[in-house]
Design a protein that fits this description.
The protein contains 11 helices and 11 strands. It has 323 residues and is α/β, with parallel strands linked by helices. It folds into 2 domains: 8-218 and 300-320, Alpha-Beta Barrel (TIM Barrel), CATH 3.20.20.70; 221-283, no CATH class. Residues 276-283 have low confidence and may be disordered. It holds the Pfam family NMO.
Length: 323
């Protein structure tokens, strides 16, 4: 896929897909498989614990992808993206950004707050780009004013932290003032949905939950099976677990001894993304994030199998619409 209005790093993917960084689930094995399949592979910097592990992970991923490229000169290999949580409680931010700059990570995905100028300048110094995820028009405008290169629009139905706006409204309004790179998130689990995201004005589909039910994801088997067995009705929207609203599997909430239909509201000011984390944060490790698209996943597959399936569905949808 080539689109000349996009930054070079986002051109020439095998499919217009950016894999979203997922808490715990996204590690080197998943990222390497995603990149080798020709899409953008990503992980949260905070998944690498302790902080020193981030350098190890990036070295491993970059060396493996370089060897793959050398052995497969004609293959489309997607770039790496690392997610940075821009929040005062994240005491690792400066360290993690420095490690990413050292490795010249081509794409940084910033979350929660618009990245500071120092962070943007550091990434831009070697030609990297910053994509910022947003759930509202106000957040999108603030991020663009800060100087980000592109936006990830997290619409209703996305797994983990998610907004409540319809993707039609969110993409449509953002496109009124921004003509740069846009990725859309929210229940995208099929090739048809990837094409739909492009049809409404996005450049990329931002896909998360679909990778949970892959053999390369860093989750236990019970989580994989829960993804395969669940439907949209099994997804609960709450801010209890992190202070930010998100979507989680009902089954895991029940297993934690909570009533998913009567969850209290969290205090947003108590959010903690620090290197040590809070005791409560650790208690929620078994709360499983998932988007409303889980009902479209019916088997555990490998990443290459998922990408090939998405490609076939994407091309079939284009043919069906005579595109």
């Amino acid at each position: 896929m080539s689109n000349t209005h996009l930054p070079p790093v986002l051109q020439n993917l095998s499919l217009p897909v950016i894999a979203s960084p997922m808490f715990i689930a996204s590690g080197p094995a998943l990222v390497k498989a995603q990149c080798k399949a020709g899409i953008v592979g990503s992980f949260p910097a905070l998944n690498a614990r302790p902080a020193e592990l981030l350098d190890t992970w990036l070295t491993e991923i970059q060396e493996d992808l370089a060897a793959f490229k050398e052995a497969n000169p004609g293959a489309k290999v997607g770039p790496i993206a690392v997610n940075q949580i821009v929040h005062q409680s994240n005491d690792r931010l400066e360290h993690d950004v420095a490690v990413c700059v050292k490795h010249q990570v081509p794409i940084i995905i910033s979350s929660l707050r618009a990245p500071p100028k120092e962070m943007l300048d550091a990434v831009h110094s070697y030609g990297g780009i910053v994509l910022h995820d947003v759930i509202s028009i106000r957040h999108a405008q603030k991020a663009l004013e800060a100087g980000v290169d592109g936006l990830i629009l997290v619409a209703a139905g996305a797994g983990g932290h998610a907004g409540a706006l319809s993707p039609f409204a969110l993409v449509g309004e953002v496109r009124k003032f921004f003509n740069g790179p846009i990725a859309l998130s929210g229940s995208i689990a099929t090739g048809d949905a990837i094409l739909a995201a492009q049809a409404m004005g996005a450049d990329f589909a931002y896909i998360g939950s679909r990778w949970l039910a892959t053999k390369e994801s860093n989750v236990d088997e019970a989580y994989r099976q829960a993804i395969v067995e669940s439907t949209a009705a099994d997804v609960v929207y709450t801010n209890l677990f992190t202070g930010v609203h998100g979507n989680y599997l009902r089954k895991s909430i029940v297993a934690a001894g909570l009533d998913p239909d009567n969850l209290p509201t969290a205090d947003k000011t108590k959010m903690n993304f620090g290197s040590g984390g809070g005791s409560k944060a650790k208690a929620w490790r078994d709360i499983w994030g998932a988007g409303q698209g889980v009902g479209l996943m019916d088997a555990v597959m490998t990443v290459p199998e998922v990408v090939e399936k998405l490609k076939a569905e994407y091309m079939a949808a284009r043919k069906r619409l005579a595109l």
